[in-house]
Design brief:
two-stranded parallel ribbon
């Protein structure tokens, strides 16, 4: 079975998770930000995110399997030679990415704004996939040739098993992190730039992306935010 498919166990978890997380978001929103959203509205929003995110990943994985129409490129430049391989950053690369989504759900002021944000996320996803099809790019193959002799390296190998190489440009981690972080700017101001920086650094230090993937990724996320808002 394709490792990118959802098994019945994971699908059941996906269906049940909104009930659990919506309660957490509701409590956090009420206590931290005095949110006016009801528990049912948080459930609606969490359920919508639970469908949109896995559905978006299926489109992402589809482009991985069908990105052989144009020449594949390696965008490595001299800066990449000075960036060390620090696999411990895989924990930031993998998990902080989703903490951002939770932060967005806590800070969102109302359902109407949430619809704008989700629509923009879909615009961003489609934009990414167009780049992946028209401009397929990979990392240098030797970047994935390392021994999984630590927990961090083993987990990085696990992540790479789901993440083929040819969807590197622009970095979707960076574009989505930028887009979500900017949606939180009205609440946390310039602190919203911190997640963008951390995700960008994690992409480089795990050697999941090259410098020329990261900068356009941040730019694309900011551009889509500007269009939507």
């Amino acid at each position: 079975m394709d490792t990118k498919d959802f098994t019945p166990k994971w699908m059941s978890l996906l269906i049940l998770s909104p009930f659990f997380f919506s309660f957490i978001y509701y409590i956090a929103g009420k206590n931290l930000l005095d949110s006016q959203m009801t528990l049912f509205q948080y459930l609606q929003l969490t359920a919508l995110i639970a469908v949109v995110v896995p559905g978006g990943y299926q489109l992402y994985f589809w482009t991985q399997r069908h990105s052989n129409f144009f020449k594949t490129r390696v965008l490595k430049i001299w800066i990449d030679d000075y960036i060390p391989f620090w696999p411990k950053w895989v924990w930031v690369y993998s998990f902080f990415y989703y903490i951002l989504i939770g932060g967005f759900l806590i800070m969102i002021p109302n359902i109407e704004t949430a619809v704008y944000v989700i629509f923009g996320g879909l615009v961003l996803l489609v934009s990414q996939c167009i780049f992946f099809i028209l401009f397929p790019a990979i990392n240098p193959p030797e970047w994935r040739q390392f021994e999984p002799d630590t927990i961090s390296k083993k987990f990085l190998k696990f992540v790479q098993a789901f993440d083929d190489e040819n969807n590197c440009f622009p970095s979707m981690h960076c574009s989505l992190a930028t887009y979500i972080s900017l949606t939180m700017f009205p609440v946390i101001a310039y602190y919203s730039f911190i997640p963008i920086f951390l995700i960008a650094i994690s992409c480089l230090l795990t050697k999941q992306h090259q410098f020329m993937d990261v900068v356009p990724g941040v730019g694309l996320g900011a551009f889509v935010y500007w269009i939507v808002f």
